[in-house]
Amino acid sequence: MSNSGLAAVAARLGESMEVIRGEYEHLAGELGYVKGQKDEFEAKAHSQMNELDVIRQSLYDLETQHGRLREQFEQELARLRAELRVARQQQASSSANPPPPANQPGAGGASGGGAAGGKDRERERERDRDRERIPDLRETKRMRVDSLDSAAGSPRLPSMQTAPGPSGSSANGAIAAVPGTPSNSTKLPALGSGSRAAMKERERAEAAMKDNGGGRAAAVSSKIG
């Protein structure tokens, strides 16, 4: 009995050991899984802590920039307030003082008007001078045309020639003028050549007058005709 009892106890003990071993192995597996999750969680925690550090640093930078901007804003606001105060003081002083008389700007306007009037007068004088020069040119051209007309209308006198005579008189150099009716040797005035010259001069005068204006050329040509 004792041997059978020992064998039964040993069998139970072996079974218990197997159960304990299985539980141990199961717990060891769970422990490994938990350790993996722990490591993962620790890594996430470290990354989040790093992100928090970055956010904290950015917050510090933003606070610094905010302080600078606030300081600049306060300085600008103080400057604008000072300018507004000065502008109000100037406006109050200008409203307290009487306005300047209205004739003061008029003096400057009168001086400007006088300068403009002086320029207009100079232009009028130049125009008057040009107008005076134009009649002078007309008179000179009319005098030239009149002289040409007188030269064309005046007849040419017959030329004086030496009459043939005896040898003695020719030796002494006596010259006999032929008055009255012309002899065979007397030449008549060249009317054809004179009329041609007069026509040429008339055409030149008309061309010159056309350059100065159609009306003047017509007047001069009518006068020549």
From TrEMBL:
Compositional bias ranges of the Basic and acidic residues kind: 118-147, 198-209
Keywords noted in UniProt: Transcription, Transcription regulation
Residue stretches making up the Transcriptional repressor Tup1 N-terminal domain: 12-85
Sequence ranges of Polar residues compositional bias: 159-172
Compositional bias ranges of the Gly residues kind: 106-117
Pfam families: Tup_N
Highest taxon of source: Eukaryota
Sequence ranges of Low complexity compositional bias: 87-96
Region spans: Disordered: 86-225
Protein name: Transcriptional repressor Tup1 N-terminal domain-containing protein
